[in-house]
Design a protein that fits this description.
By secondary structure, this protein is of the alpha+beta class. The protein is about 20% helix and about 40% strand. The protein is globular. The termini are far apart.
Length: about 290
């Protein structure tokens, strides 16, 4: 097992302090604050631990309130809002230094059959034909050193971008990103763990897409991106240790905020999850 992935799995297996009360450790990925995907994954793990095993998460809606401190643990308090005949509802508050930094509502459902349809997965190159995004950045002579440093951080998930040049470019481009991703090693047969890691991975490169039409490189001293909210719907079971295609677009940016939407497909072309996020986008042009 890859050590970085093993750390993530351990981080998602929260310590239970009391009924409905859990503690998780924070992981430093090189950001100035706790990575939002970590809090998404841990909060979903906390909620899942209070729900019957025959019910699976089908949606989560979260708000980021304060930046998380990577040097301090996070306490997750779960409110068992309702357990009905088919659905269970949970609300989770993440607390650090006595203050809520994040809250999330999640809904769980008994597995049921019904009508089905989905959008069609775009035709893109297979992941085996694409270079690893982090290796591509490391080998590029045109990428700024500050961007290279960010890509040097070892992650539990690997990425292969269909349009890598847009992610690395400081030139305006279409507000669309497509990339394959998967865990760097095989994961245990634990459906709740796969959903938590899927939530974790869904926060990568999402809001960045909103800045692409404006030709602003990221990271940059002149650009600040910060997640405000994050919504996710789990449509079908998914294995995160097999390649998944993430198709992201940004239909709007205004009022110092950007909106990004994502569709996640497995290799069979099944839509397994949908994502939406609004984030803060503050740009300070460099002085002449």
């Amino acid at each position: 097992m890859n050590l970085v992935l093993a750390d993530l799995i351990r981080d998602l297996k929260l310590e239970q302090l009391e009924d409905n009360l859990f503690r998780g450790v924070s992981r430093d990925l090189g950001f100035p604050q706790v990575f939002g995907g970590q809090v998404l994954g841990q909060s979903l793990a906390a909620a899942s631990a209070t729900v019957a095993a025959d019910r699976t998460a089908h949606s989560m809606h979260a708000y980021f309130l304060l930046p998380g401190d990577v040097k301090a643990p996070i306490i997750y308090e779960v409110d068992r809002s309702r357990d009905g005949g088919s659905f269970s509802s949970r609300r989770v508050v993440a607390i650090q230094h006595g203050q809520p930094i994040f809250h999330m509502s999640a809904s769980f459902q008994l597995v049921q059959q019904g009508l089905e349809h989905q959008s069609v997965m775009p035709q893109v190159p297979a992941p085996e034909t694409l270079p690893d995004l982090h290796q591509l950045v490391a080998q590029s002579v045109d990428v700024p050193s500050e961007l290279k440093r960010w890509f040097e951080v070892r992650l539990p998930v690997e990425f292969r971008a269909v349009n890598a040049e847009q992610l690395m470019s400081a030139h305006p481009s279409e507000a669309e990103t497509r990339f394959w991703f998967r865990a760097v090693n095989q994961l245990p047969e634990d459906a709740a763990l796969h959903r938590s890691i899927l939530a974790y991975a869904s926060d990568f490169y999402l809001l960045r897409t909103s800045a692409q039409p404006h030709g602003v490189p990221f990271p940059s001293a002149h650009l600040r991106l910060a997640s405000i909210d994050h919504a996710m719907w789990f449509h079908r079971p998914a294995r995160v240790d097999d390649w998944l295609l993430y198709c992201v677009d940004s239909p709007s940016a205004s009022g110092a905020r950007g909106l990004a939407r994502g569709s996640i497909y497995n290799r069979a072309g099944e839509l397994v999850a949908s994502v939406a996020q609004e984030g803060l986008i503050r740009y300070t042009p460099p002085r002449a």
